[in-house]
Amino acid sequence: TTNPNNKATDLYKDKLKDIEDELEKTNTSLIITEDNEHFQDQENEMPFKHCHRGELIQLFHQYCGKRFHAEMHGIHKNDWCVLKHIIRIYNNLTVCVELVTGLSDCYFPNTDVQDFFVYIHSTYFQNCTEIEELLKDAPTSLVVALTII
């Protein structure tokens, strides 16, 4: 059960402790790669899982998101689009979200994970664009010379 004042209950505190302990133990995660699409069959292969979506979403924001926001605000806003400044923080967020998803007995990835990352991206990375160098045309004399050859 949850507290009507939105304070952490003993169960919630235990869940947070489990997350913290698990994050401390591991620096790696079981991130699913593109070539492993086995995750799409999770619901059929593991029907016993009962995802606690409300708890999951709350943990995303109150635990993973809170840490991510604090670290991002420690970086100058102009550097939010510079990968070398945010890659470690973003990886920590990804690992945290994956861990929280598993501890909440939910499948990873899922729509709640997707929605959370869309929220993060719209908050911090919506103005990040890849700058492409425009290619200049070769000088006419070079084009003519190469065409003749």
Automatic annotation (TrEMBL):
Please provide the record's keywords in A-Z order: Cell membrane, Coiled coil, Disulfide bond, Membrane, Receptor, Signal, Transmembrane, Transmembrane helix, Transport
Q: Which domain of life is it from?
A: Eukaryota
Q: Does the keyword Transmembrane apply?
A: yes
Keyword Cell membrane present in the record's keywords: the answer is yes
Residues of the signal peptide: none
> Which PANTHER family does the entry link to?
RECEPTOR ACTIVITY MODIFYING PROTEIN RAMP, RECEPTOR ACTIVITY-MODIFYING PROTEIN 2
Q: What is this protein called?
A: Uncharacterized protein
